Amino acid sequence: MIKKYIYGQPIETNAVVMDIEAEKDSIQALNEIQTDDGKLFFTYFMENDDIVYGLGEANRGINKRGYIYESFCSDDPLHTEEKRSLYGAHNFIVISGIVNIGIFVDTPSQVQFDIGYTSKNVLKITPSDDNLKIYIIDGTSAYDIVKQFRKMIGRSYIAPKWAFGFQQSRWSYYTEDEIREVVKNYRENHIPLDAVYMDIDYMDGYKDFTVSEERFPNFKDFVQEMRQQGIRLVPIIDAGVKIEEGYDIYEEGKYYQLFCKKADGSDFTAGVWPGRTHFPDFMNTNARNWFGSKYQKLISDGIEGFWNDMNEPAMFYTDDGIKEAVDYIKEFDFDTNDSNKFFELRDKLTGLANRRKDYESFYHNMDGQIVRHDKVHNLYGYYMTRAAGEAFEYINPDKRMLLFSRSSYIGMHRYGGVWTGDNQSWWSHLLLNIKMMPSLNMCGFIYSGADLGGFGSNCTRDLLLRWLAFGIFTPLMRNHTALGTRNQECYNFGDTQEFKNIIAIRYSLIPYLYSEYMKACLNDDMMIKPLSFEYPDDEFAKTVEDQLIIGESIMITPVYQQNAIGRYVYLPEDMLLVRFASPSKRSCCVMHKGIHFISVGLGEVPVFIRKNKLLPLCRSVECIDMLDTSKFEIISYTDREITYTMYEDDGYSKNYDSPDNFVDFAITENDGQLGAVCKKTIVKLSLFQ
Ligand code: MIG
Questions:
Q1: Structure pTM?
Q2: How far, in Å, CA of 615 to CA of 632, rounded?
């Protein structure tokens, strides 16, 4: 049951696609409170044992209880524990206990979720704008509510299959030759690889949709050369458009009035990588169509995927901000002995980026309605990505493109995926990645992942290996690192064997992972789930946040601590532990329900196959184009007849619903013997009972 409540005159976010009639009565499920000065907020009293799920790309645990979060898309590259905002704003939560209730706060401006932070059992939702929609979903379990919610917001973006290959990035590979070198090293070491990313330095002066002729003189040929080696290049697109006479994007945007404006009608200016830029007004349909059409150029060069960055939008400074700071310095009293003045001075300078004041100083033309940016802040990255996604639909309607964004809001999940932005090469951020994945899935962001190995700081060999051993299971499996950090490609840490093995395990799992991904997208379901969603009656499973269910057959238990030789795991039922050292080198043992310590060597990947489930594996290859899905090995843990339906398609076109896309793998009984049956060739069956 879904109920919708409308307050005031909310700005349409297009997050919800289902037609739901608004209730006439006032909201029952929450306490609606108006303060004396007219501010609206909502509270809910949580039982001691209630768990709160959701918030998608947010800090801290799977259970969001005990902290306070602000939905306000933020370019903040330091995700320390106290942070309240990251790049996404995903205002969906589920309170789960004896009563289960889902809440979606649909508003494009800032919202605060105080989930037992101020007062232990009080959930308090404070929107910054009184014009909003609230959806209340009740259901039999948290998982049931998530599925209803997902129906409501529409089918998730579907990535091409090659995007399940391993991808290498760094800020930046500056030249063709640097990229060739990366590919050569991967191929020579036989470490599988499908894509290399092009960060901002491929552009000419950081100008969107340009390619530096000096560093990539024959770009189209280069794209082809890479394709011949099984590599796709994925260029970055930034939100800000460089102000430069003669630069077509700038000239057109200015001429056709497609940039965000200040109150005086002039184009709003902020400093980002290219220096001074204007921001396309993605809230405006014409601007979206215009900007979207610009992707065409790179697509005609052979590009099949993009990542949209800096779209919170991030700004380093505005002229107003600098002027204020300079005025402050001019007036600074050098004779003062008040140390606070020093901090004030420092903050004036360090606080120039992403100032709230600047977000309040420009306007969008939402097809006639003029809206101040902060009122719709959380939609900016979403609508940038929508612009690209809609353009891809008409540029090449039958072809899937890879597309993901840094900033997002619910609704954007229909147009692209997300990566979780600038994490650090910290063990704690590997754990954060683990905990964030199921929450992202709840909010519809299925094609997602973090910078494996960590973006900021220097990564170590063991951290990268452990992170990759988890990254195997995330749809976006990309190693990326920041400017100035140590080289983070897998061949830069001495012996490459373990890297090669771990990534090869990914490739042998791709048919399964892709199948589970596609089923999650097509059925508005989750691919990556917390244990509690599959074992809702298991009280202990509810507390486990460092193990995840991937698809229908397996549970994973990543190692996320330095120098650990293994870890404790909790099995909610008997399972089969498959310890992969490589796709073919593995050992299996049945383990019983309960808590165990398992050893996990660096370079090993433990996978638990659930009772009465099976896992299909193919041979690993060095890029997806070579994947042979006619032959499989099956590992199964069952003593009875079972079936696994694998989804398979060409990976590029959009004929999702064809019955040919569903292939059954069955364990059936014949003369008292269990055996595998499939229209594919089964080269080996390992059956455990
Ligand atoms: O201000 O393009 O999150 O992945 O490498 C930094 C350079 C801008 C932020 C992205 C990161 C990317 C970087 N970008």
A1: 0.98
A2: 10
